[in-house]
Amino acid sequence: MFSGAQISLYPMSDDFVGIILGALVALDPYRADFRIETDDVSTLIVGPPERLFPAMRDLFVAAARSGAHCTFHATVSRGCPGEPDDPICTPLFDAGPAGALPDRIAKAREAVAAAGLTGQDVAAQFSLYPLGPVQHMDEIYGCIDFLKTSGVFDRSKNFCTKLRGDAGPLFATLSEAFLRFGGQQGHVAMDLTVSANSPTKV
Amino acid sequence: MFSGAQISLYPMSDDFVGIILGALVALDPYRADFRIETDDVSTLIVGPPERLFPAMRDLFVAAARSGAHCTFHATVSRGCPGEPDDPICTPLFDAGPAGALPDRIAKAREAVAAAGLTGQDVAAQFSLYPLGPVQHMDEIYGCIDFLKTSGVFDRSKNFCTKLRGDAGPLFATLSEAFLRFGGQQGHVAMDLTVSANSPTKV
After folding, report:
1. Which residues, numbered 127 to 156 in chain A, qualify as contacts with chain B under a Cβ-Cβ cut-off of 8 Å?
2. Which CATH class is domain A3-91+98-196?
3. pLDDT, tens digit, for every residue of B113-135?
4. Looking at residue A97, what is its pLDDT?
5. ipTM for the complex?
6. E strands along A104-172, which residues?
7. B3-196 — its CATH code?
8. Are the beta carbons of B189 and A129 separated by less than 8 Å?
9. Is it the case that residue B83 has pLDDT exceeding 90?
10. Which of B74, B10, B56, B92 is nearest to A158 (CA)?
11. Residues A177-189, buried b or exposed e (16+ Cβ, 10 A)?
């Protein structure tokens, strides 16, 4: 099952190149696991589905520690039938059969409760798209039930859900939403935006 | 059918607030058609589906004319079954029955050929998600056939398609992709990133 993300980091600063290059060091521990390709719009990371969100967390937290208002966008995907399979995407853990929604929600909560703190507060919003022959709104509503008890739920917005909190449990919540909802071997995509140090008070 | 977008503008400049506030004037001609709500992560625009991409084009071109490296992200949606219907979203034109893919591709090409130029070159990449009971990969492959002859096709990337060209035909291409593919009354979402003035050469 092919899995990966197109990611982009946006520091709202004249020194955006320096901040991006400085933050990229945070990806070094992940480079052996990933195929990485960059162009002028985004960087592709392809690798095990469980490693995607930890890598994105470390990259974004490194940029946010510059103090500049930074945002981050990712188009995350697993199981796209238009992509060739790739051994680098082999899941690290055998997830077993998908199970009923209440069981998946409970496991997702446990994983978030075990996540370490980073000391960096962030806001995020995302949309999850379970594609193909799956009850897509059932999966989305199940995921929203999980999000509301994740500890980082902020509010529902049109077209997306907004989270707020420490980047540790927040990215763990995103990872659980991506891995546990939608068909187990099915096509699932996520549209994710993360923000830190915004001057806009909410 | 509810339609709208969560949009965000990212000028990579110390003066990001000034550039954003300056560009917002470009939305003034659209304000009567839209419901608009802003928070620290994005701005919601809800209105007729045919007006969404012209509004986003004018906003982004205004920001790009600052000369700063600017990017823009939108989560665009129509027909989401989780959103209440809203009279403000009434389509301006009766699209009629959806028709066969080759007919839709031909109409989309005609609309792009009629688009005016803005004088602003941009790069963009996007993913289109036809959700629910629809042959989603057939619609996606049909849309890709259209994109390849749109005049602004750059290349296929993992998880998305990249466009490059004048913002006029490029945003017209995005609008046609959004309006003409996926179920006519169905749930369709788009994850869109646009970039201008990048220092990265490609």
Report:
1. 127, 129-132, 136-137, 140-141
2. alpha beta
3. 999 999 999 999 999 998 876 67
4. 61
5. 0.92
6. 121-131, 153-157, 160-166
7. 3.30.70.930
8. yes
9. no
10. B74
11. bbbbbbbbebbbb
